[in-house]
Write a structure and sequence with these properties.
Length: about 230
């Protein structure tokens, strides 16, 4: 995962809420900050009327380490902070990676790619930076539906209105269900699931970088998001 960065400070970070989380499910989650270096690649305005600033699409146009990396163990829905040093992940198999780029306050959209933007040129990836999107996944026999957040979804909005308990703190309101653009409304949504690095990124953007540990350990609980009062990231 990759973390925070600006023209009004665009930034990048790289985070599931299934109905039941096995108690023995465990993974390590690493947050690192990537800062755009606009001296190496000039700011580019995105096409269209979305207001996007196009993040750098060359790996040499980023630098990291201004914000210290943070390592967490996620087990059974609970996050615990661990000491981190470069050797901490020796011998650990990398499951998945994403770089997420925020551009507050220019737009509430989040852009992402499913790799480390400092290891691979985004310009080489088909489609380049992508707006977060969703796949609507029905829950058989219940009439309920999951909103699966990813970089390769078919829908621009969630499958049903998001709960005010976690929206817009966890997911920007711009992604909320819109009856004018989305599929026919379901009675409710079974929740938010998705690509793990994206899901873990969302709580990181809900607060400033120095509050990351407090947010993950205190507000991301099994199948639940506890709203907090920290300033938006």
């Amino acid at each position: 995962m990759r973390g925070r960065g600006s023209p009004s400070q665009p930034s990048s970070t790289s985070g599931h809420f299934p109905r039941q989380i096995p108690s023995d499910l465990s993974c390590l989650v690493l947050y690192e900050s990537l800062e755009p270096n606009y001296n190496k690649q000039a700011i580019r305005k995105g096409s269209g009327e979305s207001g996007f600033w196009a993040p750098p699409n060359r790996k040499y146009a980023y630098h990291r380490n201004r914000v210290p990396a943070k390592l967490f163990r996620w087990r059974g829905g609970i996050a615990t902070e661990l000491p981190y040093r470069p050797s901490s992940l020796d011998g650990v198999t990398r499951h998945s990676v994403a770089t997420v780029f925020a551009q507050y306050p220019d737009t509430n959209h989040l852009l992402a790619v499913d790799f480390d933007a400092e290891e691979k040129d985004v310009v080489e990836d088909p489609g380049g930076w992508k707006v977060l999107s969703f796949r609507h996944q029905p829950q058989p026999g219940t009439g309920r539906i999951y909103s699966y957040v990813d970089v390769f979804g078919m829908e621009q909005q969630m499958a049903a209105p998001g709960s005010p308990h976690w929206m817009p703190q966890l997911i920007p309101s711009i992604y909320n269900y819109d009856s004018r653009q989305s599929t026919p409304r379901r009675p409710s949504t079974a929740g938010l699931i998705g690509h793990l690095p994206i899901l873990f990124a969302l709580p990181a953007f809900s607060a400033q970088a120095d509050r990351l540990a407090q947010v993950l350990t205190g507000h991301l609980r099994p199948n639940t998001w506890r709203p907090h009062q920290h300033c938006h990231g």
